[in-house]
Specification:
Layout: E1 27-32, E2 38-41, E3 54-58, E4 60-62, E5 66-71, E6 74-83, E7 88-94, E8 104-106, E9 112-118, E10 124-128, H1 134-141, H2 148-151, H3 158-163, E11 171-174, H4 186-194, E12 198-204, E13 227-231, H5 233-244, E14 249-252, H6 254-263, E15 273-277, E16 292-296, H7 303-312, H8 314-326, E17 337-341
Parallel strand pairs: 1-17, 3-12, 3-14, 4-11, 14-16
Antiparallel strand pairs: 1-2, 5-6, 6-7, 7-10, 8-9, 9-10, 12-13, 13-15, 16-17
Helix pairs in contact: 7-8
């Protein structure tokens, strides 16, 4: 499909620079099948789902993956985006023309890394020196990797260390938050439990590739970056049981959705999964593992807007986004949410 079909104009002031407070007071645009759109709030979610439904959250934890260092006199910026080994990460490099295979970068506070091979996408491998776990090294020298559309407008600060983690964050390894889950609070989860709506977790370590624009003119020519994920046997069994009893599997975030769809077969059975996924969902895709989605509002021409258009139909999502823009919904990672029930 032509990527231009997924373009739209977004006023700059619709980009949220801070999350709603409390988190569950964010707005919620509900699209439920052919029904008219409804303007609600995230805290209204228990009334929009059914007893027996199950929400699926991503329990990945964002690491301080934005690094600033030097190689000799050259300043080098690095954004880690995928672990390739115990001490090796793949990273997008700023000032990459000053970096060569074998060069050592000093990221400060005693943290050193040697550049390895350069991939087709321009990223470098970085091998971190020493014996300490890389996560501890990053705590010393890294900062929270806010999306570029926020970081270009204000500096990262201490508040982001809390704001950019979900209440489910447990497994370190993401370089971007699964932002739909940022809206959830313990009180909201208790209200959902009281309404008979269950929840479970999986792990998908979100990579920086999620922010990369689609540069191809046709979706068939776009290559997704792989991300590592895991669904264990107990979680797969639970989700299959939910659907067998007539409940719906509602992914919270496109990351949860993409991993479930990677694990589901054509028979619509979800199986255990552990490894990389580079699934790219565009209109015409037949969903196998999920029945709905809670998600934020996405960038024009992005793979994520293509995904929601696959779920609800392109014209429906174009109309929903036009409504959201006209009604001053807040967009992107710290913005408002939508509930999409095809």
């Amino acid at each position: 499909m032509n990527v231009d079909l997924f373009d739209f104009e977004l006023p700059n002031d619709r980009i949220a620079l801070r999350p709603a407070a409390p988190r569950d007071t964010a707005r919620l645009l509900v699209l439920d099948g052919p029904e008219a759109m409804r303007d609600l709030h995230v805290r209204d979610l228990p009334n929009q789902l059914r007893a027996g439904d199950c929400l699926v959250f991503n329990d990945t934890r964002v690491i301080p993956a934005q690094l600033e260092g030097v190689r000799g006199e050259a300043k080098i910026g690095a954004t880690l985006h995928k672990r390739e080994g115990p001490r090796r990460w793949r990273a997008f490099i700023r000032n990459a023309k000053r970096l060569r295979d074998g060069d050592t970068v000093d990221f400060g506070n005693g943290v050193l890394a040697t550049a390895g091979d350069r991939a087709e996408d321009g990223s470098f491998a970085l091998d971190f020196h020493g014996d300490e776990p890389v996560e501890l090294l990053l705590e010393r020298c890294g900062r929270m990797p806010l999306p570029p559309y926020i970081a270009s407008k204000r500096p990262t600060d201490a508040q982001d260390a809390d704001d950019y983690q979900t209440m489910f964050a447990n497994e370190p390894g993401a370089v971007a938050a699964p932002t739909a889950a940022l809206h959830f609070t313990p009180d909201l989860l208790a209200a959902l439990d009281a309404a008979g709506v269950g929840h479970t977790t999986l792990t998908l370590h979100v990579g920086a590739g999620t922010f990369l624009p689609v540069k191809a003119e046709d979706t068939a020519d776009h290559k997704m970056h792989a991300e590592w994920g895991r669904i264990d046997q107990a979680t797969a069994d639970h989700l299959n049981a939910v659907r067998a009893k007539g409940g719906r599997v509602i992914a919270v975030g496109t990351t949860s959705l993409r991993l479930i769809e990677s694990a589901a077969g054509d028979d619509k059975i979800i199986r255990p999964f552990e490894g990389d996924t580079a699934i790219f969902i565009t209109p015409g895709y037949h969903f196998k593992g999920i029945d709905g989605l809670v998600t934020n509002f996405h960038l024009p021409r992005s793979t994520l807007f293509m995904l929601v258009s696959s779920l609800m139909g392109l014209e429906r999502m174009q109309a929903a986004y036009a409504h959201a823009i006209a009604d001053h919904y807040r967009f992107y990672s710290y913005g408002d949410a939508s509930l999409l029930l095809p």
